[in-house]
């Protein structure tokens, strides 16, 4: 079972709640995905710091764990303030920490990320940092008190799938016991299976589901692929070989060519 | 038949018109405020484009909207279609948009230039939805109210409690101000720009992976630029980020917009149900017409017809 800061989670798929055609469709996608954790963006959907909006009531009525994020924050200060606001609104100390370094690619500012992570863990937050696939950054974030890491596999919303298998493999290899969730960049279920086959613990999705023609069906497809990849990793996969190896011995057959 | 219509946004006025056509005596009650969402609308009658993210029912209900407006207010509708464009690096998004919509032609650079000469050389590919139309929401709201007043509809800004019992039927078209707990507000922010350096003949939508923006030409060299979609019912002024995103996109459409005057910024709260589709519901002492979301001018006519039929063909009053 997936362990996130002491919480036991069955589903290995986390779902974002932005960009769906309607809240009704979002609800349906959450149901078919079987996800237990949904992320919500506080900053983007909350003009003027208002709380108690209908959208939030709807989110909370879904009875899933809410993982608020700091999407849209560009500085340590903004991210910390947003995290504190999220703790009040959702009554959770979980925070998916995003500090954006480049508005266009939405690449994380890893320096500010580490600093914000340090401040927030000291303040009692359980931080889920959205990071690149860099080993050193991972190391610093663990040093800052993070117990879960969320490396990207491609830029947010890009649907490109894992771009640097080597980096992801090396992250997994260096930190075998750290819970790691691949966040951002997945486009199709085969991408989810591929990263899970590398031994990652879970995936987080939003755009690939929200912008699919049928979001609910796509959420279901991703859930299956995630499970398949996870099961395959633990079942021990055959490594590719250069020569053909017959699965049935041919010795003893009447003819072999 | 004596009917009270609460609300004089696009829903209320459309309902009043349909009732008047059927011979009802109509009173429209609205303590005037500028809060109504339709005052800030784009006024696009673009059912095919909306299908990109909306349900098929938006097309079914909205297909005849342009005809309804043209019949109701002659010369109010411009049938110049919609042009959908994307910046070069987002060109793949046009494919995605096209895969989810129908009734368009794919245009190359010269074809775009032929439609919109000021955009010549700026975009290599576009989608043209020739059957779509647009109108000027504010002109239409004012003209329709004037026409209704001329047809004998009474407009009142306050209504004593004892007067309410005198009506045979009440229709609530008060948008997000209504007490309907199933509604949520979706904040929309818009700008009005003025420049004589660019002319457009039709609404242009610029696709961007994160925030689609449309520019609707209005009279006197003005352009309505909208609109954000934020899950919030906060009515405060437009945020710097939203303004920046809208301006950035319009600047991508044509750099001359960089020199335009910002004539106005506005914020409206769209009333929406969970499926983002409108409803006409019969509730005890009133009929509710609500949930028009971002489709006020597109769907109000169909909803008004439904509501008027409910009034005249009878309904089962349930407590």
- CATH domain class of the largest domain in chain B: Alpha Beta
CATH evolutionary superfamily of the largest domain in chain B: D-Amino Acid Oxidase, subunit A, domain 2
Low-confidence stretches of chain A: none
Shape of chain B: elongated
Order of helices and strands of chain B: EHEEHHHEHEHEEHEEEEEEHEEEH
DSSP summary: helix tally of chain A: 9
Return residue spans of chain B where pLDDT drops below 50 for at least 5 consecutive residues: none
Domain unit count of chain B: 2
Helix-strand category of chain A: alpha/beta
**Class derived from helix and strand content of chain B:** alpha/beta
Report, as a whole number of angstroms, the end-to-end distance of chain B.
21 Å
The SSE order of chain A reads: EEEHEHEHEHEHEHEHEHH
Oligomer: heterodimer
If you had to describe this structure to a student in words, what would you say it looks like?
The complex is a heterodimer of chains A (257) and B (319). By secondary structure, chain A is of the alpha/beta class. Chain A is built from nine helices and ten strands. Chain A has helices spanning 23-33, 54-61, 76-90, 110-122, 135-143, 165-174, 189-197, 207-210, 215-235; strands at residues 2-4, 7-9, 13-16, 37-41, 65-69, 94-97, 126-131, 148-151, 179-183, 202-205. In chain A, the strands form two sheets. Chain A has an eight-stranded parallel β-sheet with strand order 5-4-3-10-9-8-7-6. Chain A has a two-stranded antiparallel sheet with strand order 1-2. The longest helix of chain A has 21 residues, at 215-235. By secondary structure, chain B is an alpha/beta fold. Classes of the chains: A alpha/beta (257), B alpha/beta (319). Chain A binds chain B through residues 21-25, 27, 44-48, 50, 53-55, 58, 72, 157, 211, 213, and chain B through 53-55, 96, 99-100, 183-185, 187, 209-210, 230-234, 236, 239, 241, 272, 274-277.
Descriptors:
heterodimer; A: 257 residues; alpha/beta; eight-stranded parallel β-sheet; two-stranded antiparallel sheet; 9 helices; 17% strand; B: 319 residues; Rossmann fold; D-Amino Acid Oxidase, Chain A, domain 2; 2 domains; eight-stranded mixed β-sheet; six-stranded mixed β-sheet; 16 strands; elongated
């Amino acid at each position: 079972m997936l362990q996130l800061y002491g919480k036991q989670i069955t589903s290995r798929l986390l779902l974002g709640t932005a960009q769906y055609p309607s809240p009704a469709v979002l609800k349906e996608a959450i149901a078919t995905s079987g996800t237990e954790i949904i992320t919500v963006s506080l900053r983007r959907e909350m003009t003027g710091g208002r709380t108690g909006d209908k959208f939030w009531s709807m989110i909370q009525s879904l009875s899933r764990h809410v993982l608020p994020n700091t999407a849209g924050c560009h500085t340590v200060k903004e991210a910390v303030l947003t995290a504190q606001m999220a703790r009040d609104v959702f009554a959770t100390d979980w925070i998916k920490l995003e500090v954006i370094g480049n508005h266009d690619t939405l690449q994380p500012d890893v320096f500010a990320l580490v600093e914000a992570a340090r401040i927030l863990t000291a303040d009692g937050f359980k931080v889920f940092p959205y990071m690149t696939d860099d080993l050193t950054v991972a190391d610093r974030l663990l040093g800052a008190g993070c117990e879960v890491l969320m490396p990207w596999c491609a830029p947010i919303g890009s649907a490109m799938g894992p771009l640097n298998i080597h980096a992801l493999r090396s992250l997994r290899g260096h930190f075998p016991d750290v819970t790691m969730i691949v966040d951002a960049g997945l486009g199709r279920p085969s991408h989810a299976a591929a990263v899970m086959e590398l031994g990652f613990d879970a995936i987080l999705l939003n755009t690939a589901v929200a912008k699919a023609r049928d979001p609910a069906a796509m959420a279901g497809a991703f859930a299956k692929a995630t499970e398949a990849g996870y099961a395959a990793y633990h079942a021990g996969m055959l490594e590719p070989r250069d020569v053909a190896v017959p699965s049935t011995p041919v010795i003893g057959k009447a003819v072999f060519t | 038949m004596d009917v009270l219509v609460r609300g004089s946004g696009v829903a209320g006025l459309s309902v009043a018109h349909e009732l008047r056509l059927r011979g009802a005596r109509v009173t429209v009650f609205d303590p005037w405020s500028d809060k109504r969402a339709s005052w800030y609308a784009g006024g696009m009658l673009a059912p095919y484009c909306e299908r990109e993210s909306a349900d098929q029912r938006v097309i079914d209900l909205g297909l005849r909207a342009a005809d309804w407006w043209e019949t109701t207010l002659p010369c109010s509708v411009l049938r110049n279609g919609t042009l959908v464009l994307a910046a070069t690096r987002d060109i793949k998004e046009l494919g995605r948009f096209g895969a989810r919509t129908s009734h368009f032609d794919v245009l190359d650079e010269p074809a775009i230039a032929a439609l919109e000469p000021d955009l010549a050389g700026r975009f290599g590919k576009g989608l043209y939805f020739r059957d779509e139309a647009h109108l000027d929401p504010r002109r239409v709201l004012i003209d329709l109210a004037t026409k209704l007043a001329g047809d004998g509809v009474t407009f009142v800004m306050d209504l004593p409690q004892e007067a309410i019992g005198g009506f045979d039927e009440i229709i609530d078209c008060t948008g997000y101000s209504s007490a309907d707990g199933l509604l949520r507000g979706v904040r929309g922010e818009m700008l009005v720009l003025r420049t004589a350096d660019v002319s457009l003949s039709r609404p242009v939508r610029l696709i961007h992976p994160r925030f689609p923006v449309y520019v609707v030409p209005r009279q006197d060299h003005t352009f309505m630029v909208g609109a954000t979609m934020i899950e919030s019912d906060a009515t405060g002024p437009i945020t710097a980020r939203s303004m920046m995103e809208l301006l950035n996109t319009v600047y991508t459409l044509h750099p001359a917009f960089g020199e335009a005057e910002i004539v106005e910024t506005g914020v409206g709260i769209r009333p929406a149900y969970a499926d983002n589709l409108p409803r006409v519901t019969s509730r005890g002492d009133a009929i509710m017409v609500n949930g028009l979301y971002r489709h006020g001018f597109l769907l109000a006519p169909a909803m008004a017809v439904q509501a008027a039929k409910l009034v005249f063909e009878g309904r089962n009053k349930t407590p």
